[in-house]
Amino acid sequence: MIKIKKFFSNLYKKSAFQTIITSIGCALIGLIVGFIALAIINPGASWEGFKTMSLGFLKVPVKYDMRTEALAKTITRTAPLIVAGVAILFAYKAGLFNIGASGQYTMGVLASLFCAYIWNMPWYVCIVAAILAGALWGAIAGFLKAFLNVNEVISGIMLNWIGLYLSSMIIKGQEKMWWKTLSKCYDLKNVNANALLPNCGLDKLFADYQYITIGVFIALFVSLFMYILLEKTTFGYEIKATGFNKNAARYAGMKEKKNIVITLAISGALAGLAAPLLYLTGIEPWECPASVPAMGFDGISAAFLGGLNPIGTIFSSFFITHISIGGSRLDTSFYTPEIAKIVTSLIIYLCAFVLFVKDKLNKRVLDSEKALVNKKIEVKEENNSDNKEEIKVNEKEENIQSTTDNSVEDKVEVK
Amino acid sequence: MVLLLQYTLIYASVLAVVAIGGMFSERSGVINLGLEGCMVIGALCGALVMNFLPDSTGAFLTVFLTILASIVGGIIYSFMLSVAAITFKADQTITGTAMNILAPAIATVIVKSITLNTGEKKATPYLYYINAHDKFIISIGKFELNWFMIMMVVVVLLAFFVLYKTRFGLRIMSCGEHPQASASNGINVIKMRYIGVMISGALAGLGGIAFINSATSSWPFDAGVLGFGFLSLAVMIFGKWKPLNIFYGALLFGLFRALGNVYTGFDFLANLKINAIIYSMLPYIVCLVVLMISSKNSRAPKAEGIPYDKGMR
């Protein structure tokens, strides 16, 4: 019994475990609210609707490989979201909230599609162009933040709108790209098939679903790469140090202003990379939307739900895509697909409480350990204890010390 | 020219009212990035009232009920921020962002569900209110005076008076500068911050209905309020967190926004043959430039964005 208790209290202490628990909690509460929304709009169809939204591809019949195709679709759409999520979390680790990711993504769309449609470039050139365009857009926000003290959130929003209008202006002006009658871009397949990302046989794995490409591997590689960059390199350490305490970082000789610009440029590059991973698969043409694309904001959900960890972002991105696609399958005679958006945005809101929950968890562990020590002391007094037990108590106290240290470290991580 | 003045005043009234809301929140020590979301919800509540009120309702009653609904909607939505940021000490940036994304989603779902239930085949995010819309306008010759323009002047003057001439205003300001010091003087910091955020929610709701009511008789709620919440925050920074400066800033921004609506009326502008999209971009570019100039020496309230901790020195 005590062993089990101890096992759990040890598990509680682990930061990774806490993160997973809180993330699952956020997702569950989000889903419950989604269900309530469905029930308010139409009680009769709500349970069926909830199953459609939350089960996603699992609810598609297995017949004719339809379920495999649905899974492949989810994976294809997850890939860009992973990259966008990593973009957000990378900047957040440096204490910067890159809400401009949507704008950097739009610039990525503009650059990659321009290369693909107008200059007939192969796909890898388009990807590089998207990365550069995103990095440029991110670096502008970084420059304004570092040298002119402009709040990166507000400048990011402004750059989102400027980027959106700029891309619409340029794309709508190109007859080779813009299909005026349908008000969207032409199918890339018919214009420049070289610009489509290669399949590398992946489609064979997924019942000949043609849109699944190496974009998936690129996304996985990026998240792994960023994990190593953040956790194992000096540069990653500097980034995190700057995020935790700007002044201390400066005092330690880190070039804080340069780091801000570089961080936002890298974050922008990643957000830009998300664009070709979606629009060079041919899954849908770019339509020049009237408002800022949701990719950057979904990236925020993915980053926070993933516990601000590049690997966790892979899973959270899959979940968010899963819910969004599930939402789009809702019966439109009762419901609208935006209900899925309520769920994902609520998840961001709940993630803001994560620090609070983690503090409570740590406090609980501390309290229970304190109680354990007190008990030991009582036992000791009763038994006229010998030295051995005293040492044990000391060990316990040291343990408590280490748990408090742990919680401090957690704060560093979360910051 | 009359048209330019009219549109300038319309957009300025939106920006000024919302920016002053943001100012109250920040002066109390809470950054309300969720202004955009509060605007959307306020606009939604007001538009719903305008949509559902029978046409025979008197002009004054329509205006009163619409504005009341928007303000109440804005206040209720702002509780999402105050509960998270003040009581639970959550990150204000994340909370505000979540509110901004959530609000258009809620609004779209509600509006689309209503259009579905009224028997339309396809759900649209548009809400129509053309009859009620006209009741907000008093024509003086060619110039259409909007109720919200009067409201702007009232809000600016009231904000100036409340902030600088009343005990309440001075207390709110102290909570944004040094909350521990205010607490030591017996001020309830938590309560003050709640009130600050509530005021911002109320004014954002008012600004939201003013915005969607300004130029059109229907509004697509999936577009939110086109970043006007953030433009207002920029106006607030430009106005150095002071009501009168905010008013001037709002007039300047309103002018640039209005140019996009009426540039075809000016021969020399129409002759330039600039792409219409450039004019849509203009307010955001101007905003960025203004922020570049004014942020370097910004004097934000010292304690803004930092959760109140009694024990901190």
Strand content of chain B: under 5%
Strand content of chain A: under 5%
Major β-sheet annotation of chain A? 2 strands, antiparallel
Number of strand elements of chain B: 4
Number of helices of chain B: 13
- The portion of residues assigned to helices of chain A is over 70%
Order of helices and strands of chain B: HHHHEHEEHHHHEHHHH
Q: List the chains of the largest interface with their residue counts.
A: A-B, 49 and 47 residues
Radius of gyration of chain A: 25 Å
Q: How are strands sequenced across the largest beta sheet of chain B?
A: 1-4
Task: Tell me the structural class of chain B.
Answer: mainly alpha
What do the pLDDT scores of chain A average to?
Answer: 83
The rough form of chain A would be described as globular
Q: How do the strands and helices of this protein lay out in sequence?
A:
The complex is a heterodimer of chains A (415) and B (313).
Chain A: H1 2-13, H2 15-41, H3 46-55, H4 66-93, H5 101-117, H6 123-148, H7 152-172, E1 178-179, E2 184-185, H8 188-191, H9 202-205, H10 215-232, H11 234-244, H12 246-251, H13 256-279, H14 295-305, H15 310-328, H16 338-351, H17 354-382, H18 387-414
Antiparallel strand pairs in A: 1-2
Chain B: H1 2-27, H2 35-52, H3 59-87, H4 92-117, E1 126-128, H5 130-134, E2 137-140, E3 143-146, H6 147-165, H7 167-177, H8 179-184, H9 189-214, E4 218-220, H10 228-238, H11 243-262, H12 267-271, H13 276-295
Antiparallel strand pairs in B: 1-4, 2-3
TL;DR?
The complex is a heterodimer of chains A (415) and B (313). Chain A is mainly α and 415 residues long.
